[in-house]
Amino acid sequence: MTPADELRAAATRLREAATAASTNRAGEPTASWSTEERYSDYPAGGNRLFGDFFTREDGRVTAWPLLFRGGSREREARMETQHAQYIVLMQPAAGLALAAWLDQAADALTGAAVPDTEPALAVARQILGTTPTGEDQ
Asked: What is the dihedral of CA 102, 105, 109, 110, to 10 degrees?
């Protein structure tokens, strides 16, 4: 396998996993993950993981659906398979490699006119939650 083949295979695998993790079994969207503190008195913290957001009739935006369930003495912690597989695929080692790629892209693009369609810039904006105008999403 050539390096280009490896890059394309990795992009395909990541795209497939991200697509699978973007909905749950009920078909609800789960593409914009968030976390919310639930148990501040736990020594290691106690956050909940949500898959997306929905807007209530009164206009309030609520994190939903819950991606990680259980985790008590009575209930074993569980997660839908496609979400767990995506988390494993994007493990900390992948995050570090992605950060190195972003650093390399920043060095290569410094001083250049960079189009909004630049893939590294699109990834950076997803991580930062910003738009092409620099505003928060």
From this structure: 60
HSE-up (13 A, CA, CB side) for residue 56:
6
d(CA 5, CA 11): 10
Q: Which two tokens stand for residue 7?
A: 């890059």
Q: pLDDT tens digits, residue range 101-131?
A: 999 998 888 888 888 888 988 888 888 888 8
CB-based contacts of 88-91 (< 8 A; 24+ apart in sequence): 89/13, 89/14, 89/17, 90/14, 90/17
H/E stretch holding 37: strand 34-37
Helices assigned H by DSSP within 1-137: 3-20, 81-89, 92-109, 119-128
And the tokens for 128? 């930062």
**Per the structure block, which two tokens stand in for 87?**
């988390």
pTM of the model: 0.69
In angstroms, rounded to a whole number, what is the distance separating the alpha carbons of residues 36 and 50?
8
Residue type, 37: E
